[in-house]
Amino acid sequence: MTETSFSARLSELLHFIYPDLNADILASQVIDAFWPEDPAHKGRRRQPRKPGNNLWSQKDAVLITYGDSLIDGSHKPLDLMNDFLLRHMKGVVNGVHILPFFPFTSDDGFAVTDYRKVNPQLGDWVDITRIGDEFHLMSDLVLNHVSSQGVWFNAYRQGQKPYDGFFFEAEPSDDVSMVVRPRTTPLLQEVETAMGTRHVWCTFSHDQIDLDFRNPEVLLEILRIIRLHVDMGVRIIRLDAVAFLWKEIGTNCIHLPQTHAVIRLLRLLADYATESIILLTETNVPKAENLSYFGNRNEAHMVYNFPLPPLVLHAMMAGTAKYLNDWQRAMPPAPLGCAYLNFTASHDGIGMRPAEGLLPPAEVARVIDTAKELGGLASMRSLPGGGESVYELNCAFFAAMARTYEGEDGRQLERFLCSQTIVMSLEGIPAFYIHSMLGTPNDLEAVQRRGMNRAINRHRWDYARLNALLEDPETVQAQVLEMLSERLKLRAAQSGFHPNATQFTLNLDERVFGLWRQSLDRAQSIFALHNCSGEEVVIPQEGLNLIADEHWVDLLSGETIAAGPVTLAPYQCRWISNKG
After folding, report:
1. Measured distance CA(340)–CA(338) in Å, rounded
2. 409 tagged catalytic
3. Are the beta carbons of 437 and 430 closer than 8 angstroms?
4. Is 269 helix (H, G, I), strand (E, B) or coil?
5. Neighbours of 90 (CB within 10 A)
6. Which of 17, 93, 182, 490 has the maximum number of C-beta atoms within 10 A of its C-beta?
7. What is the mean pLDDT of residues 102-125?
8. Could you give the C-alpha distances from 432 to 363, 412, 436, in angstroms and in order?
9. Contact 243, 258 (CB under 8 A)
10. Exposure letters 95-109 (e unless 16+ CB within 10 A, then b)
11. Is Glycosyltransferase included in the keywords of this UniProt record (predicted)?
12. Is 422 helix (H, G, I), strand (E, B) or coil?
């Protein structure tokens, strides 16, 4: 793509998003916002990056954490996090997603008051860049909404330009019955402004006021913020709640064409940036809607594999991989230049919407009931036209592995390790929440204290106490961290686990989730087998295509695998490879 085609593509996108404005003038403003220095070349590449498989490798894995997941009352939490990363995560993961580290007023960081500052209770930009020097750094671009108490909204209420046009307004008489909501709170909030009474749009909460991207000044300001974060060492931009970005009265206000066009614009800028910038979309929605954010290899580089958490949870509770297998067989490989981000746990709950159409309603209900028996909670969302349904389960994933449908059986560790090994085996890049890495239990006290369901999975560890637990090999925390670390280190050495390596779902016993992975150069094959049940399972010889004259070994146990049946103990995983 030449300079001419870059300019033409940029203008084309802007004309689609803002048909009533001069696209060429707006394109110049976009360039100035994203490349504010070096007027001659604007810091751009002469040619865009071509889609390929070289943005990541099997060595890539991500830790997800809040900036204050570790505290001690004396040191900056980001200093403690840096110490933990260097002490325990170096060589285990090479990427770190620090959840919103900006000043905020609610939602644990997702009601941002100032995108340009680091929350002083966590640290400062020096602490962020220090982590970015050692790990691939991911930050949140909370681009759908800002805090009701932030500078932007205060300026809006006072009628100050340009902020007087920064927020999406509607009227109580407008038909919003089709609007897709992830919450049950009223959509509109009445506020008094210098312009009179206004009703502002609040997709998530009344402390999170939706921005109005119909105003190009909003887009330009977001681009300036992205540039700042890239300059501070951020290399993966997580587009939080991006599906709701564009609104039109009378529509469902989710996944609208302008939203996809804005992402394509961001991808165009990323492809021409001299820095390596990866865009990750956060769209906790059913499969087809989620996959649409790859676009035609011109939107997100990565999308979350959102069906994975509820399907893995079901498989381990029910003792069958039937629905997990059915889903994976129908999943396309990621397009060239794209990848899935695989996970089972994050700072949010276990989303149940992505299970729609994949798990029968009766199975969804049984998973919810089983989680509740473990002390888990359920958060609700409003349905278009009225009514509510479970939006997500709130439960630490490690805690959710304490029992099956049949009850507790003392196999929590084995079940949990199997669930996380599935994440490591799949096509894509694995990501692990810090509380999964540490086997953190449900924090019911935090739920009571903070009055929010999601606090159950947002424990703040006293760092001295955590280190003491990690030094004792008999503790759950030490055992979980050691088991996961060993497997991630082993995984990083296998070319067959490249995020884009060939993947085929095996047709085996329904209790087993089995994959065949083959490296890009076809040199390594790995049969990744995961027994999701508490029963011994025997895989007949014809179930695995172990090529003759190759030496096959289970990478996890070191056992040589000869031709013949392969036995899996309850919850056992095997990585059978021709390259040991």
Report:
1. 7
2. no
3. no
4. helix
5. 11
6. 93
7. 97
8. 25, 18, 6
9. no
10. bbbbbbbbbbbbbbb
11. yes
12. helix
Q: Give the pairing type, strands 525-531 and 573-577.
A: antiparallel
The rounded distance, in Å, linking the Cα atoms of 290 and 454 is 23
C-alpha dist (Å) from residue 140 to 64, 108, 162, 281: 11, 12, 24, 10
Name the 3-class secondary structure at 51. coil
Give the pLDDT of residue 540. Answer: 94
Q: How many Å apart are CA 175 and CA 249, to the nearest integer?
A: 7
Pull the structure tokens for residue 562. Answer: 């000869």
- Residue 295, C-beta contacts closer than 8 angstroms, at least 6 positions apart: 260, 263, 264, 267
Peptide bond into 307 cis (omega under 30): no
- d(CA 92, CA 427) in angstroms, rounded, equals 18
The active-site residue out of 240, 271, 348, 554 is 240
Reported as a single tens digit per residue, the pLDDT across 460-487 is 999 999 999 999 999 999 999 999 999 9
pLDDT given at position 181: 87
Mean pLDDT of 305-333: 97
Q: Rounded to 5 degrees, what angle do the CA atoms 518, 523, 525 make?
A: 35
Residues comprising the chain, all counted: 580
Output the pLDDT for position 423: 98
E strands, 290-435, are 302-304, 339-342, 350-351, 377-382, 388-394, 403-404, 407-408, 429-433
Answer yes or no: are the C-beta atoms of 475 and 469 closer than 8 Å.
yes
Q: Chain-wide mean pLDDT for the chain?
A: 95
pLDDT of 42 higher than 60: no
Gap between the Cα atoms of 215 and 262, Å rounded? 13
Amino acid code (one letter) for 260: H
Tell me what pLDDT residue 286 has: 82
Rounded to the nearest 10 degrees, the angle between the axes of helix 476-491 and helix 463-471 is 80
- The yes-or-no verdict on residue 1 having pLDDT over 60 is no
Cβ neighbour number for residue 289 with a 10 Å cutoff:
17
Nearest to 244 by CA among 259, 229, 232: 259
How many whole angstroms from its chain centre is CA 436?
14
